[in-house]
TrEMBL record:
<dbReference type="InterPro" id="IPR044483">
    <property type="entry name" value="AKR1D1"/>
</dbReference>
<feature type="binding site">
    <location>
        <position position="158"/>
    </location>
    <ligand>
        <name>substrate</name>
    </ligand>
</feature>
<dbReference type="GO" id="GO:0008209">
    <property type="term" value="P:androgen metabolic process"/>
</dbReference>
<dbReference type="GO" id="GO:0006699">
    <property type="term" value="P:bile acid biosynthetic process"/>
</dbReference>
<protein>
    <submittedName>
        <fullName>Aldo-keto reductase family 1 member D1</fullName>
    </submittedName>
</protein>
<dbReference type="InterPro" id="IPR020471">
    <property type="entry name" value="AKR"/>
</dbReference>
<dbReference type="Pfam" id="PF00248">
    <property type="entry name" value="Aldo_ket_red"/>
</dbReference>
<dbReference type="InterPro" id="IPR036812">
    <property type="entry name" value="NAD(P)_OxRdtase_dom_sf"/>
</dbReference>
<feature type="active site" description="Proton donor">
    <location>
        <position position="73"/>
    </location>
</feature>
<comment type="similarity">
    <text>Belongs to the aldo/keto reductase family.</text>
</comment>
<dbReference type="GO" id="GO:0006707">
    <property type="term" value="P:cholesterol catabolic process"/>
</dbReference>
<dbReference type="GO" id="GO:0005829">
    <property type="term" value="C:cytosol"/>
</dbReference>
<feature type="site" description="Lowers pKa of active site Tyr">
    <location>
        <position position="102"/>
    </location>
</feature>
<feature type="domain" description="NADP-dependent oxidoreductase">
    <location>
        <begin position="36"/>
        <end position="318"/>
    </location>
</feature>
<dbReference type="GO" id="GO:0008207">
    <property type="term" value="P:C21-steroid hormone metabolic process"/>
</dbReference>
<dbReference type="GO" id="GO:0007586">
    <property type="term" value="P:digestion"/>
</dbReference>
<dbReference type="InterPro" id="IPR023210">
    <property type="entry name" value="NADP_OxRdtase_dom"/>
</dbReference>
Length: 341
């Protein structure tokens, strides 16, 4: 991928034409990823059955071609059903859809990686995923419990060998089960560990991390650009105010006066401005919504551009504060957020 800042002359024109026509950016392995996707995380205890199914169908009808999911969201069966129904209707072909699945913390041992991906494919009833990523660089004790704890309620961790896990992902790509492979929540050191691995066959094409105007990730973004790794920004509109895993002391992003003032100029919402900001930086965004109106609104970001001055104003909002801190796992040896980036 050519970062937009580095494109000289004709290359820049070709790059922007590609973005404008396809709303996609290239990945280092020759595939490409849509700039905007639908996030599908929802608390299974509080979400009515079928909500995800309907949301994905509405999203596809609205023009989304990128769906971000995970085994631990407990709704991949609904995502798969929605995709298959839209294929049956003739609305899309399988190759039009970009689905990202994730390897959970209890499945890091190399011998578990392929069976875990095969289980995801069985749930989705699809032959392959477009991107498969290590969800977190922290391994938990393998077994049926997704969040294993001892008798004292303490999380049970597992020895992490990220390079061995990565080799198992490479084998999944070779087998055609995943078109591309990447990571999530990895810091620079952890990315370098993979990229400097002896015998590396495929480097990560992407790193999915929290990224929004209050947490712009400038250093990690620059490092990833230098190594042709696309940043996929989760929580691009801020996140839910769930105290069990979120820093609720940070102010709500969408009430920010700068985002709202710029939105007024373009007749857009603060959410649309926040999404457009990241897309213009070459950051893929995956806002989660099961609300039909907001799903459609979030997609309406390709009919305007922010000026250089507006981009600088939004960049200046950066507070370097995470919403998603995952402090309950901060004692894990591979907890990624102790490093600067």
């Amino acid at each position: 991928m050519i970062p937009y800042q580095c494109c000289p002359g004709k290359e820049a024109v070709k790059y922007f034409l590609y973005l404008r026509l396809h709303h996609r950016i290239p990945l280092s392995d020759g595939n490409s990823i849509p700039l905007l996707g639908l996030g599908t995380y929802a608390d299974p205890q509080k979400t009515p059955k079928g909500s995800c199914l309907e949301a994905v169908k509405i999203a596809i009808d609205a023009g989304y071609r990128h769906i971000d999911g995970a085994f631990v969201y407990f709704n991949e069966h609904e995502v798969g059903q929605a995709i298959r129904e839209k294929i049956a209707e003739g609305k899309i072909k399988r190759e039009d859809i970009f689905y990202c699945g994730k390897l959970w913390n209890t499945c890091h041992p190399p011998e578990l990686v392929r069976p875990t991906l095969e289980k995801t494919l069985k749930i989705l009833q699809l032959d392959y995923v477009d991107l498969y990523i290590i969800e977190l660089p922290m391994a938990f004790k393998p077994g049926d419990a997704l969040y294993p704890k001892d008798e004292n309620g303490k999380f049970i961790y597992h020895e992490t060998d990220l390079c061995a896990t990565w080799e198992a992902l490479e084998a999944c790509k070779d087998a055609g089960l995943a078109k591309s492979i990447g990571v999530s929540n990895f810091n620079r050191r952890q990315l370098e560990m993979i990229m400097n691995k002896p015998g590396l066959k495929y480097k990560p094409v992407s790193n999915q991390v929290e990224c929004h105007p209050y947490f712009t990730q400038p250093k990690l973004l620059e490092f990833c650009r230098q190594h042709d790794i696309v940043i996929v920004g989760y929580s691009p509109l801020g996140t839910s105010r769930d105290e069990s895993w979120v820093n609720v002391s940070s102010p709500p992003l969408l009430k920010d006066p700068v985002l709202n003032a710029i939105g007024k100029k373009y007749n857009k919402t603060a959410a649309q401005i926040a999404l457009r900001f990241n897309v213009q930086r070459g950051v893929v965004v995956i806002p989660k919504s099961f609300n039909p109106q907001r799903i459609r609104e979030n997609f309406q970001i390709f009919d305007f551009s922010l000026t250089e001055q507006e981009m600088k104003e939004i960049e200046a909002l950066n507070k370097n504060v995470r919403y998603v801190e995952l402090l309950m796992w901060r004692d894990h040896p591979e907890y990624p957020f102790n490093d600067e980036y």
